[in-house]
């Protein structure tokens, strides 16, 4: 039995308990996925990049892959509750050193994903204000949103969930309205060819499958809020599986509706000619004001996603600080709201610095900040999901803990095979995803940077094993590694690899 050192006090190291039900967890995961952004931007981009109409089938394939992953992932979440979900699962499954490596990748990827959204957010706000006759630079709009998100990030988690619930309800209503309108104005009936396997051939289609995965990023976040969930053994699994199902339905129906409205023969050319095709169709079918409404809803969608990713990133930083894997002050929570206030403020400072730097350097907020950074972060998160799938298998190989063979062996094995295949396609065709020439520096640099981050994290984990064994023993054990008893005696944590 190893012990951990004295850590932040119980008030500082514990997140709020029993605050979030299934629907609250759904609000965080669905808004992180930014369904309207994916449909209005990602789907249209995929039609243009892939040159194929098999986008609905692509989303179906990815949904099945992630559903298989979620079976084992949520089963493991019944036995491990930690705000640093991927980090903790990999640490407890594969080993502590790989877990710290995963922590470095996860914190960086989630941080980058959240920051990237400020580029799209600022540009969309600039466009909406311009329609109203107001002139404001994208970075000014981004900083206003940054201030609001930073403030909400320090509030109680259930307040954040209520804000997201309102924004999400409106967003999904608009998506369904646009989709129904597209089907009602179908050019040639229901285009069944969109679900044909023959539409997924070629290099570009492989890249399209990889890009489809990024539309689901956020589905895994209910486990991050497991410590704050009500009846976590059931609510986390329900929210995660429901997120995959809801997103799959929305993405398949919406992308199929665009094909129906334009026609299978013309949708690729229309997507290439008009990046705002979804809003253009809405304006033509429902009236010009609906195109503006769609743009406003895109603004609220991205804002909600930025808030959701802010909360996820803050909890990862909090988890690392609480276990002393990162500076201990990151593991402090607010005595009043039990929110991870110092981690949240840290994320706010970093994102604000990036916005200001982008503005000062005159870099493109859409291409260089939003698209490049979010796509790159997606690669890192996909690698984490695949690694976590392996961790599920290893964890239950030692002890099935009374869980079913399907949840601990069969589904996780299928998930590993499928996710490694998608990850391979993502890295192989990353230049296509970024829209740059094959052989360019950026598609090679991004995977290398994540590999270097993982190696540095593994090196830090190896140092903790030798130099700070009391900290190393608590890696992945969450509150057990941080809380002290009323007599100030450290809590024991079982040793391991």
From TrEMBL:
Record's keyword terms, sorted: Membrane, Transmembrane, Transmembrane helix
Any one annotated GO CC term: membrane
Keyword flag Oxidoreductase: no
GO biological process, one term: transmembrane transport
Residues of the Amino acid permease/ SLC12A domain: 43-470
Membrane topology summary: Multi-pass membrane protein
Membrane in keyword set: yes
Top-level lineage group: Bacteria
Subcellular location(s) of the protein: Membrane
Any Pfam family hit: AA_permease
Segments passing through the bilayer: 25-51, 57-76, 97-117, 137-157, 164-184, 204-225, 237-259, 288-309, 341-363, 369-397, 409-430, 442-463
This protein's name: Amino acid permease
Gene source species: Glycomyces algeriensis
């Amino acid at each position: 039995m190893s012990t951990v050192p004295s850590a932040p006090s119980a008030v500082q190291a514990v997140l709020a308990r029993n605050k979030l039900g299934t629907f609250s967890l759904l609000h965080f995961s669905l808004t992180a996925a930014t369904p309207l952004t994916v449909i209005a931007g990602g789907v249209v981009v995929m039609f243009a990049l892939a040159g194929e109409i098999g986008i609905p089938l692509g989303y179906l394939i990815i949904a099945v892959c992630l559903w298989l992953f979620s079976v084992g992932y949520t089963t493991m979440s019944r036995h491990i509750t930690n705000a640093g979900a991927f980090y903790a699962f990999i640490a407890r499954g594969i080993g502590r050193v790989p877990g710290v490596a995963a922590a470095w990748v996860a914190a960086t990827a989630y941080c980058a994903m959240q920051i990237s959204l400020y580029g799209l957010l600022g540009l969309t706000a600039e466009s909406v204000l311009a329609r109203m006759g107001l002139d404001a630079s994208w970075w000014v709009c981004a900083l206003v949103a940054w201030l609001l998100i930073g403030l909400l990030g320090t509030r109680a988690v259930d307040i954040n969930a209520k804000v997201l619930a309102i924004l999400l309800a409106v967003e999904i209503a608009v998506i369904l309205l646009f989709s129904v309108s597209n089907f009602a104005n179908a050019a040639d009936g229901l285009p069944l060819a969109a679900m044909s396997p023959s539409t997924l051939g070629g290099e570009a289609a492989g890249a399209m499958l990889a890009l489809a995965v990024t539309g689901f990023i956020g589905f895994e976040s209910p486990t991050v809020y497991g410590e704050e969930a009500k009846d976590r053994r059931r609510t986390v699994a329900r929210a995660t599986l429901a997120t995959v199902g809801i997103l799959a339905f929305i993405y398949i129906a919406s992308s199929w509706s665009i094909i129906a409205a334009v026609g299978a023969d013309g949708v690729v050319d229309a997507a290439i000619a008009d990046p705002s095709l979804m809003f253009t169709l809405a304006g033509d079918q429902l009236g010009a004001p609906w195109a503006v409404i769609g743009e406003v809803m895109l603004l609220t969608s991205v804002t909600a996603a930025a808030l959701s990713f802010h909360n996820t990133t803050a909890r990862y930083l909090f988890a690392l600080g609480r276990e002393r894997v990162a500076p201990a002050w990151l593991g402090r929570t607010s005595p009043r709201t039990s929110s991870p206030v110092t981690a949240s403020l840290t994320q706010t400072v970093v994102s604000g610095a990036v916005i200001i730097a982008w503005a000062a350097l005159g870099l493109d907020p859409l291409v260089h900040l939003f698209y490049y950074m979010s796509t790159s972060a997606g690669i890192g998160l996909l690698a984490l999901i695949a690694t976590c799938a392996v961790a599920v298998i290893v964890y239950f190989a030692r002890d099935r803990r009374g869980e079913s063979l399907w949840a601990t062996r069969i589904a996780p094995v299928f998930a590993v095979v499928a996710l490694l295949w998608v990850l391979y396609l993502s890295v192989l065709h990353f230049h296509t995803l970024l829209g740059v020439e094959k052989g360019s520096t950026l598609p090679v640099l991004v995977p290398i940077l994540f590999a270097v981050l993982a190696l540095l994290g593994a090196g830090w984990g190896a140092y903790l094993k030798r130099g700070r064994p009391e900290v190393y023993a608590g890696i992945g054990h969450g509150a057990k590694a941080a809380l002290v008893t009323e007599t100030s005696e450290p809590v024991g944590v079982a040793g391991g690899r």
